[in-house]
């Protein structure tokens, strides 16, 4: 498995920088590309409003997109290898469901538990969804200690999703129209609502998740042969599994808490990356999916902005429109999703 | 030559819901020496795979003792165990998107650093394993392109690259035609001879095992018998292996014959 640094890496980094610049230069307000670039390189832009838009709005948004894309893709890769299932993603452990449940209880529960109607702040929403995903994650880790079978864990995650969906349905039946609308908007997902300090918090959590993932690279490679072989190669299965689950929880949980449930990135990017590098070696895939995921989400966000118009499309819709055909294309090209 | 594997009063099987042991086979006693080529035979469900999985540490024993190079198996760390025992299992690989060399390289995991980087020595051992199993031409191929027989050899090469004194294979010749069965078995025997490794495998091809093995462990409903094939023939152990209504063992040819 020894090889030189694949040529794809410098390529990916170049594309990432390019997408980053394009993402920042495009938006509802037209700012010339040269002015954006100049602003980023330290020259003052000709109009004050431009620098404000770039520094206070577009830069945090671009960084969020990078964190969200990279984090979700990495957690998807971890899940696919851990569950040896090409269809696994950050959603399967019920982490996103937990976040949705937290958000739903806060927004929709208002009427039922008679907090009275208050417009719920973004911060409260983040807290509620973080709590929800952490709660589900802790439950999953507790269950993982008892259930030795990884497939059973997968099904338990799906059951959490069903319970969440049911609770959300009940809540929305009783909720007011405005509350329902706010919840729906949350499920659209967004990368544009984070303040710089929130971006930093998200960045720190994602970095922790990345470090944990890097520490499990060797076990992940052994797990490609299945748990029995991995154990025979000296991998401490229980410990590795817990580390992988915690890393996924940190990545997917924090991303969903801050940006809402964003579909398909976690599922599609690991497959695209395997195709690009033509390998299953996690020493290449871990940095690969982070870069690829960041690029893809920057692109999706650029499209969602509908440049030069004042509309912003739900990013969740864009990732699905981009992601679902990719999965279908992969299936058609390869007949079976080899992972 | 010293004993590589000492098994005394070993009971294997499963634990029920209340933790009560459900034994599959009990009171196993045998020892294997360095470089021996050993097969485990017996009817379906008699516990061949369970024995192998227990010895490999994939499954827990119920009671008794397993000594590897004189040390109790339980006292070894996962890494020490991984550098004393390698396995080839029947379960299908979850992914076949690895190249032959990548898969064989994974056998070096017990010796590599935290990231799994191969040293020059590791690369040489991997190349040796590939050469020994005659896989040079397939080195860069993906595993999903291989036939069953080729994949089996790749898995054996991976176990060889793990460079352990004991190598265990669970039914390595199932699904292969007679020619490839013999090819795989011969490779295993050469590994035992040339590298001084103790190779133990389960099989249903009793006639081939009789021709090739140094020792055979026979598991049947009355217990177990351990010894060289010729001794088993003398003791008429093979006759007791299966119910006698359909087949019988012919001691002169060393094969089973269908009864008329």
From TrEMBL, chain B:
Pfam families named among the record's database cross-references: ABC_tran (PF00005)
GO molecular function: ATP binding; ATP hydrolysis activity
Keywords: ATP-binding, Nucleotide-binding, Transport
Residue intervals of the ABC transporter domain: 5-246
Entry annotated with the keyword Nucleotide-binding: yes
Domain of life: Bacteria
Protein name in UniProt: ATP-binding cassette domain-containing protein
Taxonomic source organism: Muriicola jejuensis
């Amino acid at each position: 498995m020894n090889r030189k640094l694949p040529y794809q890496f410098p390529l990916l980094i170049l594309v990432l920088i390019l997408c980053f610049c394009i993402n920042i230069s495009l938006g509802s307000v037209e700012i010339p590309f040269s002015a954006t670039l100049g602003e980023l390189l330290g020259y003052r832009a000709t109009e004050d409003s431009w620098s404000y838009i770039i520094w206070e709005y577009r830069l945090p948004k671009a960084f969020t997109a990078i964190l969200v894309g990279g984090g979700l893709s990495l957690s998807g890769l971890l899940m696919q290898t851990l569950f040896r299932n090409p269809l696994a993603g950050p959603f399967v452990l019920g982490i996103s469901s937990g976040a949705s449940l937290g958000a739903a209880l806060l927004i929709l529960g208002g009427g039922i538990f008679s907090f009275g109607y208050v417009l719920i702040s973004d911060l409260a929403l983040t807290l509620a969804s973080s709590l929800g995903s952490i709660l589900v994650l802790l439950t999953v880790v507790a269950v993982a200690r008892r259930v030795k079978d990884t497939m059973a864990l997968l099904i338990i995650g799906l059951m959490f999703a069903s319970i969440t969906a049911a609770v959300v349905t009940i809540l929305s039946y009783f909720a007011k129209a405005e509350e329902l609308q706010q919840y729906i908007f949350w499920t659209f997902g967004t990368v544009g609502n984070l303040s710089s300090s929130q971006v930093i918090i998200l960045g720190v959590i994602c970095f922790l998740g990345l470090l944990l993932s890097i520490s499990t690279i060797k076990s992940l490679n052994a797990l490609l042969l299945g748990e029995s072989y991995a154990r025979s190669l000296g991998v401490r299965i229980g410990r590795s599994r817990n580390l992988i689950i915690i890393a996924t929880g940190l990545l997917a949980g924090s991303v969903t808490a801050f940006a809402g449930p964003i579909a398909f990135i976690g599922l599609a990017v690991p497959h695209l990356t395997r195709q690009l590098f033509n390998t299953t070696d996690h020493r290449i895939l871990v940095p690969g999916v982070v870069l690829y995921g960041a690029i893809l989400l920057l692109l999706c966000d650029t499209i969602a902005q509908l440049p030069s118009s004042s509309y912003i499309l739900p990013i969740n819709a864009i990732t699905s429109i981009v992601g679902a055909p990719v999965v279908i294309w992969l299936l058609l090209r390869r007949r079976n999703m080899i992972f | 030559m010293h004993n590589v594997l000492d098994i005394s009063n070993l009971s294997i099987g499963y634990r029920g819901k209340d933790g009560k042991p459900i034994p599959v086979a009990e009171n196993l006693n045998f020892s294997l020496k360095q470089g021996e080529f050993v097969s485990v035979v017996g009817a379906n469900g008699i516990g061949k795979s369970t024995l192998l999985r227990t010895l490999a540490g994939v499954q827990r024993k119920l009671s008794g003792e397993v000594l590897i190079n004189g040390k109790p198996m339980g006292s070894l760390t996962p890494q020490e165990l991984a550098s004393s025992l390698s396995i080839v299992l029947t379960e299908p690989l979850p992914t076949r998107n690895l190249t032959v060399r990548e898969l064989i390289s994974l056998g070096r995991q017990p010796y590599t650093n935290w990231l799994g980087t191969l040293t020059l020595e590791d690369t040489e051992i991997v190349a040796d394993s590939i050469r020994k199993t005659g896989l040079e031409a397939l080195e860069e191929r993906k595993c999903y392109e291989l036939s069953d027989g080729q994949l089996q050899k790749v898995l054996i090469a991976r176990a060889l690259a793990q460079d352990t004194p004991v190598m265990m294979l669970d039914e390595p010749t199932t699904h292969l035609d007679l020619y490839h069965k013999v090819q795989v078995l011969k490779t295993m025997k050469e590994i035992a001879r040339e590298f001084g490794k103790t190779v133990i495998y389960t099989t249903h091809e009793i006639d081939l095992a009789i021709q090739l093995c140094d020792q055979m462990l026979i598991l049947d409903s009355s217990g177990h018998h351990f010894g060289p094939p010729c001794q088993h023939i003398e003791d008429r152990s093979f006759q007791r292996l299966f119910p006698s209504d359909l087949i019988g063992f012919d001691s002169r040819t060393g094969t089973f014959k269908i009864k008329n």
